[in-house]
Specification:
- The complex is a heterodimer of chains A (about 325) and B (about 325).
- Chain A is an alpha/beta fold.
- Chain A folds into 2 domains: about 180 residues, Thiamin diphosphate (ThDP)-binding fold, Pyr/PP domains (Rossmann fold, 3-Layer(aba) Sandwich); about 120 residues, 3-Layer(aba) Sandwich (Rossmann fold), CATH 3.40.50.
- Chain A contains 13 helices and 14 strands.
- In chain A, the strands form 3 sheets. Chain A has a 7-stranded mixed β-sheet, sandwiched between helices. In chain A, strands 9-11-10-13-14 form a 5-stranded mixed β-sheet, sandwiched between helices. Chain A has a two-stranded antiparallel sheet with strand order 1-8.
- Chain A is globular.
- Chain B has a single domain, classed as 3-Layer(aba) Sandwich (Rossmann fold), CATH 3.40.50.970.
- In chain B, about 45% of the residues lie in helices and about 10% in strands.
- Chain B has a 5-stranded parallel β-sheet, with helices on both faces. A two-stranded antiparallel ribbon of chain B has the order 4-5.
- In chain B, α1 crosses α2.
- Classes of the chains: A alpha/beta (about 325), B alpha/beta (about 325).
C-alpha cells in the first residue's frame, strides 16, 4: 500500500490503462505542459506522445464530438473537459451523439468513451466553476455516471470506466484533488461500476451520499455517535446505475433514509433515491442538498451554501425523534 | 477519372445506376410518406445525386463517411443496401437499425457509413475524431463528412475545420450547397464570402464545383481523395447544387419561385449523365431499360417493407447500454 492523492491515483489509473491498451488516449486542454488541472495527466504526454495525450484548442464541442467519432471508430478516448461547467458547451455531443449512437443505429456501433468533467466546490471559483450537475446526466438513457470519493476508488473506477463499452460521465470532485489515502498499487483490478460501498456500519438510519459529501456524512455520523445514534453511511460511487440492492437492504434494516448531496436539492438525484425507497419500503425518507442558488464567491457566502456535518446530524436527529 | 478509357462507359453507367437507385428510393420514400407508410420526416436528396455518387466512387469500403439529416443518398452511394434502408424508413424488422432510428439515423457501419445525423453539423466533430482514431490504429483510410450550406453557421463546423488542420487529419469536408437552409436563403444569413472562404481562412484548401455535374464531382474527388490519402491534410469541396423538392417531403417549398425550380431542372444531374451515355454507346432503349430495372428493384423493396413484420416491442429496451441497462416496464416499477 502506498499513500497518494486523489489526483495521483487518477494519474496512476490512466497510465496503467494506457500501458495496457494502445487504443486508450486522452484529449483536452492543457494536458501536456500543465499535466491537467490537478496534475492528473502529469508526465503522460512525455511517456505516450502527442497523439495519445492530445493538447486541444478551447473547442469543447469538438473535444466531446471527436471523442464520439474516435470511439465509434474503434478507440477508447477520454475527453477531458476540465470543469463540468465547461462541459455544458458540449452537452449536445454528449447527449445527442454519445448517449444515443448505439441505440439509434440499432447496435451497429459502440461509444466506449469517458467524458471526464470534475464537479463541485473547490473554494473561491464561484458560479461558473463550482457546479455539481450530476443529476442531469442520470436522466439521459445511454450514459453511465460515476462520482469517485477517495484516491482508491478514483483509481479503480477510472479504470473500470475506461474499460467500459458504454459512454461514462466521470465526475471527479475538485475539492478532493489533494485528498490523501492508501492505494494498493499491486492490485490492478477495477472497482465495479454500479456497486456502492458501505463506509460506516450502523443500525438507526441510513445516510446515502456520494463524491465529496461522503466525507461530510462521515463527520456527521461521528457527531451522531456522540448522541448514541448509530448511522450507516453508504457511498454510492456510481449514480447510474445506482446500487439499488445495497441501498434497499440498508434502509430496510435501519428503517430510515437520509440522502445528502452537494448539488442543488431541487431536481437533485437524492430525490430519485428517496422516492424509490419510499415507494418500495414505505419508510421515512429525507433529502439534504444545496439551496437553489448559484455557488457564490465570498467565503461566508460559499460556506452558507454547503451542507455541513452539523446540519446532516440535526436532520438525522429530527428523523429519529 | 479512371485512366482506362475503354472501361469508362461501363463505369459511368454504374454510377448512373446508383444515381437512379437514389432517385427512385427518394421518390418511393416520398410516396410512402404521403401514403402513411413512412412516419416522421423524410428529407429527400432529389437533384443532388451526383455529389454522393461522384464522391463515393472514389472511396474505399474502409473509408468512413458521416452524414446529416439528408443522408439516404450518401448511404446508398457508400454501399448501404437500399432494401434494409427502406425497411428502416418503414420502421420494420430488418431495417438498418431495426426500426430504432428511421430516416434521420440511417447507418451501415459495415461499409463505413457512421450514420446520418439529426443535428446539423454534428457530423463535423465526429469526423475529425474518427480521423484521429484511424491515425492511432495506423490506417490509411480517410473520413468524408457531408454537410449542407445551412450547417456552416454552426460552431462545430468552424471548430472542426480548425481541428482537422492543426492535426493534419485525413478529412474531406463536402459541403453540398443547395442554397436553402430549410426555408431560409443561406446567403441572407451568412456573412462574408461563404463556405469556401471559411475553409481557406483556416488554411484548408477548398474548391467550388458544379455538384450537378457527375464528371466534375468524380474528377475533383479523385484528385482530392488521393491527396488526402497521401497526407495533404483536410480539404473542402463546395458542390453547388439545387434541392428540387422541399426541405422534407411535406414541405411545399412556397418560399421560392416555381420558375426558379423550373430553371433548375435544366441543370439537374440525371439528364446530364444520360446525355453523356447517349454519346458513348447507350441508346434511349438501353437507358429506359436501366431505369425500369431500378424502378422494379425499388418497388420490390417497398413491397418487402410493406410485408415485413414489425420489430418485437422488446427491442425498444435493447442496445441502450450494458452497464445500467433498462428493462421492459421499468417505469412502472
Amino acid at each position: 500500500m502506498s499513500e497518494m492523492t486523489y489526483a495521483e491515483a487518477a494519474r496512476l489509473a490512466l497510465r496503467e490503462e494506457m500501458q495496457r491498451d494502445p487504443l486508450v488516449w486522452a484529449l483536452g486542454e492543457d494536458l501536456g505542459y500543465e499535466g491537467g488541472m490537478a496534475g492528473q495527466y502529469k508526465g503522460l504526454q512525455a511517456e505516450f506522445g502527442e497523439d495519445r495525450i492530445v493538447d486541444t484548442p478551447i473547442s469543447e464541442s469538438t473535444i466531446m464530438g471527436a471523442a464520439v467519432g474516435a470511439a465509434l471508430a474503434g478507440t477508447r478516448p477520454i475527453a477531458e473537459m476540465r470543469f463540468s461547467d465547461f462541459a455544458m458547451c458540449a452537452v449536445d455531443e454528449l447527449v445527442n451523439q454519445a448517449a444515443k449512437a448505439r441505440y439509434m443505429f440499432g447496435g451497429q456501433g459502440r461509444v466506449p468513451m469517458v467524458a471526464r468533467m470534475p464537479i463541485g466546490i473547490r473554494g473561491g471559483i464561484a458560479a461558473q466553476h463550482s457546479q455539481s450537475p450530476e443529476a442531469w446526466y442520470t436522466h439521459v438513457p445511454g450514459l453511465v455516471v460515476v462520482t469517485p470519493s477517495t484516491p482508491a476508488n478514483n483509481r479503480g473506477l477510472l479504470k473500470a470506466s475506461i474499460r467500459c463499452d458504454d459512454p461514462v460521465v466521470y465526475m471527479e470532485h475538485k475539492g478532493l484533488w489533494g485528498l490523501k489515502g492508501e492505494v494498493d498499487e499491486s492490485d490492478d483490478t477495477e472497482t465495479a461500476l454500479g456497486v456502492a460501498e458501505k463506509v460506516r456500519a450502523g443500525d438507526d438510519l441510513t445516510i446515502v451520499s456520494w463524491s465529496a459529501q461522503v466525507g461530510v456524512a462521515l463527520e456527521a455520523a461521528d457527531l451522531l455517535a456522540g448522541d448514541g445514534i448509530s448511522a450507516e453511511v453508504i457511498d454510492l460511487r456510481t449514480l447510474w446505475p445506482w446500487d439499488r440492492d445495497a441501498v434497499m437492504a440498508s434502509a430496510a434494516r435501519t428503517g430510515k433514509l437520509l440522502v445528502v448531496h452537494e448539488a442543488v436539492r431541487v431536481g437533485g438525484f437524492g430525490g430519485e433515491i428517496a422516492a424509490e425507497v419510499a415507494e418500495e419500503l414505505g419508510i421515512p425518507v429525507a433529502r439534504l442538498g444545496g439551496e437553489r442558488i448559484p455557488i457564490p464567491f465570498s467565503v461566508p457566502l460559499e460556506e452558507a451554501y454547503k451542507i455541513k456535518a452539523d446540519r446532516i446530524a440535526a436532520r438525522a436527529r429530527e428523523m429519529l425523534a | 477519372m479512371n485512366d482506362n478509357l475503354a472501361n469508362e462507359p461501363a463505369r459511368v453507367a454504374a454510377m448512373y445506376r446508383t444515381m437512379l437507385v437514389i432517385r427512385a428510393f427518394e421518390e418511393a420514400a416520398g410516396e410512402n410518406f404521403f401514403a402513411g407508410n413512412v412516419r416522421g420526416s423524410v428529407h429527400q436528396y432529389i437533384g443532388e445525386e451526383a455529389i454522393a455518387v461522384g464522391i463515393c466512387e472514389n472511396l474505399r469500403d474502409d473509408d468512413y463517411l458521416t452524414s446529416n439529416h439528408r443522408g439516404h443518398g450518401h448511404s446508398i452511394a457508400k454501399g448501404a443496401h437500399p432494401r434494409a434502408m427502406m425497411l428502416e424508413l418503414f420502421g420494420k424488422a430488418g431495417g438498418t437499425s431495426n426500426g430504432k432510428g428511421g430516416s434521420m439515423h440511417i447507418a451501415d457501419f459495415s461499409v463505413g457509413m457512421l450514420g446520418a445525423n439529426g443535428v446539423i453539423a454534428d457530423g463535423c466533430t465526429i469526423s475529425v475524431g474518427a480521423a484521429q482514431a484511424l491515425r492511432l490504429r495506423g490506417k490509411d483510410s480517410i473520413v468524408v463528412n457531408f454537410i449542407g450550406d445551412g450547417g456552416i453557421n454552426r460552431g462545430p463546423f468552424m471548430e472542426a475545420l480548425n481541428w482537422a488542420k492543426i492535426y493534419n487529419l485525413p478529412v474531406l469536408f463536402v459541403c453540398e450547397n443547395n442554397q436553402i437552409a430549410a426555408s431560409t436563403t443561406t446567403r441572407l444569413v451568412t456573412a462574408g464570402e461563404g463556405i469556401a472562404a471559411r475553409a481557406l481562412s483556416f488554411d484548408v484548401p477548398a474548391v467550388t464545383i458544379d455538384g450537378n455535374d457527375l464528371f466534375e464531382v468524380d474528377r475533383t474527388a479523385a484528385r482530392v481523395v488521393s491527396e488526402i490519402r497521401g497526407g495533404s491534410g483536410p480539404q473542402l469541396i463546395q458542390a453547388m447544387t439545387y434541392r428540387l423538392r422541399g426541405h422534407f417531403a411535406h414541405d411545399p417549398a412556397g418560399y421560392r419561385d416555381p420558375a426558379e425550380v423550373d430553371a433548375a431542372l435544366e441543370y439537374e444531374p440525371m439528364g446530364r449523365v444520360e446525355a453523356w451515355l447517349r454519346d458513348n454507346g447507350m441508346n434511349d432503349a438501353d437507358i429506359a431499360q436501366l431505369q425500369d430495372e431500378v424502378k422494379a428493384e425499388i418497388d420490390g423493396y417497398v413491397a418487402d417493407a410493406l410485408n415485413a413484420p414489425w420489430p418485437d416491442a422488446s427491442l425498444a429496451f435493447t442496445d441502450v447500454q450494458d452497464v445500467g441497462a433498462p428493462h421492459a416496464g421499468e417505469a412502472a416499477l
